[in-house]
Amino acid sequence: MLKDVTLGRYYPIESPLHELDPRTKMVAILIYIVTTFLASTPITCALTFLVLCLLIHLSKVPVRYMVKGLRAVVIIVVITDLINIFFVENGLWKAFIVTLRMIEIVLGSNILSLTTKPKTMAAGIEKGLGWMKRLHVPVHDFATMISIAFRFLPILTQEADKVMEAQKARGADFESGNLLRRAKALMPILIPLFVSAFRRADELALAMDSRLYGSGEPTSLHPLKYNTSDGVSYLLAFAYLALVIVLKVVHV
Question: What does the mean pLDDT of the chain come to?
């Protein structure tokens, strides 16, 4: 159930994608998501799907583990497909395009989080948006919030699963009845989950205060540096974007 959520979880393994700079991966995934919306022909759709398969292979994350993240969007995909099939012209093809885009966006985002540590991702965001500091934008605080969100998302999903298992052991039923009844059955889960979240937030705030967070200019023990593989990755990413745009323009 909630334990199938893979977004925000880091998969510790050695791979070419794990070794890349987080800024490189974020730009590459952003380019890939843009191309998924540009792809609308069989050739461009096949190209984006092949690139996704290549990224999954380079990440070395087990396909079965990565695909688990798709379960969270199954209902959204099914509803969208039904609307396209029955109410949109050429609905079958539009439904296929929507389904493919959802799969590619979810798995592409999972590749980024599974191959990048939250702390490293926060450092990449702060470094990449460093120019915004001239506009007095609190980039470091924003990056810290992103890092905390990615760290706590897996923890909260695990706690939600534990609470659900405990409620099931006491006779709770979360799977029978209509949608309204299922929603009401979730109330015994939401209350302890919110209490746990606020408790963790309070503990985190105390820990940050004790470490004098925000009292000076932040420093990094391991500053980010580009290497040759990052340069090659940038070239390949922009070449791929240009190829998709050309195929889009010539209607191939």
Answer: 84
* Spatial CA neighbour of 3 closest among 147, 118, 191, 157: 157
- CA–CA distance, 226 with 202 (Å, rounded to integer): 37
User: End-to-end distance of the chain based on CA atoms, in angstroms?
Assistant: 40
Q: What would the pLDDT profile of 209-234 be if each residue is shown by its tens digit?
A: 887 777 766 667 678 889 999 999 99
Find out whether 118 and 150 touch, Cβ atoms under 8 Å: yes
> Per-residue pLDDT averaged across 172-176, rounded?
69
Instruction: Tell me the C-alpha distance between 25 and 148, whole Å.
Output: 19
Check the CA dihedral 17-21-26-32 and report its sign: negative
Please tell me the distance from the alpha carbon of residue 65 to that of residue 3, in angstroms, as a whole number.
Answer: 11
Helices first, then strands: H and E counts in the chain: 10, 0
d(CA 7, CA 86): 32
* Structure token pair of residue 93: 């093809």
Closest CA to 93 of 50, 39, 51, 52: 39
Q: Kindly provide the b/e burial profile for residues 63-85, where b requires at least 16 CB atoms within 10 angstroms of the residue's own CB.
A: eeebbebbebeeeebeebbeebe
Band (23; pLDDT cuts 50, 70, 90): very high
Question: What's the pTM?
Answer: 0.78
Instruction: Summarize pLDDT for 63-87 with one digit per residue, the tens.
Output: 888 887 777 778 888 888 888 888 8
Cβ–Cβ < 8 Å for 142, 125: yes
